[in-house]
Amino acid sequence: MQLIQNRFTRKPRPVRVVQFGEGNFLRGFVEDMLETANERGTFDGSVAIVKPTDRGDLQKFREQDNFYTLLLRGRIHGKPVVQKRVITCIENVVDPYADTDAFFRIACLDTLQIVVSNTTEAGIIYDENEQFMARPAKTYPGKLTQFLFARFQYFHGAPEKGLLILPVELIEKNGEQLRTCVLRLADLWQLGTAFRQWVLQSNSFCNTLVDRIVSGYPKAEAEQIQQELGYRDVLLDTGEPFALWVIETDCEQETAQKLPLAQAGCPVNFVKKLEPYRERKVRILNGAHTSSVLAGYLMGKEFVRDCMQDSLMREFMETAVLREIVPTVPLPESEAKQFAQAVFERFDNPFVAHSLLAISLNSVSKWRVRVLPSLRDRLNQTGALPVCLTFSLAALLAFYTSDCLQDGVLLGSRGGEPYEVHDDRKVLAFFAASSKQKAVSAFVNDCLAQTAFWGEDLTRYPGLAQQVTEDLTAIRQTGIRQAVSEVLQKAKREEV
């Protein structure tokens, strides 16, 4: 079969975007919009990708000359829709651990205007142990600070060489948090007042919100798709047609000039206040994922659509969302319910194989961001723990149960078959040392007391540790399906 790089050509375009992250989501979201804007003549730019961690390699990109196919499939107004395009806008991919000089050369590009990142919820952190002379720094904020300082020095602090910085990590006020990390590192490394002022005055760190389900490489049907395409593509990416990018900015006109996507018809909104959009999306869509997929995986499901097609798991998700999450969303209830129903339809997309294991990445930080606020607010509203959201924490602990930590990966077991748990090293080390060695109640109490995991001591919530202990015990003794069934019965009794 012919190779994709032998089928397509790339129009030379200046590098205007540096992207920290090479994963499925960015390739199925940001690159899709940039490609559209290039095609419609509003952008004329290419992307340089930087691998943000020392894991993995970029060999697949290099073998395909950075070309890949994006396949978007779903329903629009109830009708099946299939959209296919070849992404050509990636000019370069760089591994800063293998070639740090190439990383810093990107910082010196005169044409560069935009920084995009997706390093997961755990990526935007301040680490006081970061070293300025490291090649490169360990964390994303560390790399970005080094990158900005190199640009500041190369262009002698020219104000017009500041960048539009758009993190899409799903944390509250992601732009502001990233800027805070950069400024703290600038102080820690004693990079000077002039650099600090340049960061503040010449660079725009925007809070953003993104929404699209990107399921990645369609392993089960890849061969059939490639036969239909007529070429081999190991970077094939799939997702749904729906997309939304909300960018908070006080300078809409200036921001839109640097990122002219809306002019090309892309679903990009520049707004003064992001919070209503964020609360709706994070609590309902992401909360639905994080509160249900670990239980679904332990039940034997592989994809989100499998959960939607299982009557028990669908009922669990709908109960969690409609009864426990929707009442906490700061929008009219009818609007929140309408969005929730649309989310259920998107999850039931027959074309999207959204892997539960892929969603499980960094589940501890995801549960903290996506589920804990709804649990807390619902408890305050009713005086009682929301049963499904509470159970989701027990399912998380069941999913992370293992005493086998190998090469930075925790190995869980489902029906005797191993699966990989990926999270922060400290999180995995805790579970490897605690999840099987202690009695259930002691394990639950120790876990809930880890303020570094949750941002607070969860044992302070009345009855939470006891209920999670009971739920985890039920999962271990009667199995996940029976445990979910009992939770739903309890929810029905409380509703009456």
Automatic annotation (TrEMBL):
Key word Oxidoreductase present: yes
Record GO biological process: mannitol catabolic process
Any single GO CC term annotated in Swiss-Prot or TrEMBL for this entry: cytosol
Mannitol dehydrogenase C-terminal domain sequence ranges: 273-475
Keywords: NAD, Oxidoreductase
Catalysed reactions, semicolon-separated: D-mannitol 1-phosphate + NAD(+) = beta-D-fructose 6-phosphate + NADH + H(+)
Top-level division of the source organism's lineage: Bacteria
Classification via Pfam families: Mannitol_dh, Mannitol_dh_C
UniProt-recorded Gene Ontology molecular function terms: mannitol-1-phosphate 5-dehydrogenase activity
Domain Mannitol dehydrogenase N-terminal: from-to ranges: 16-250
NCBIfam families noted in UniProt: PRK03643.1
Protein name: Tagaturonate reductase
Organism: Caproicibacterium argilliputei
Species lineage: Bacteria, Bacillati, Bacillota, Clostridia, Eubacteriales
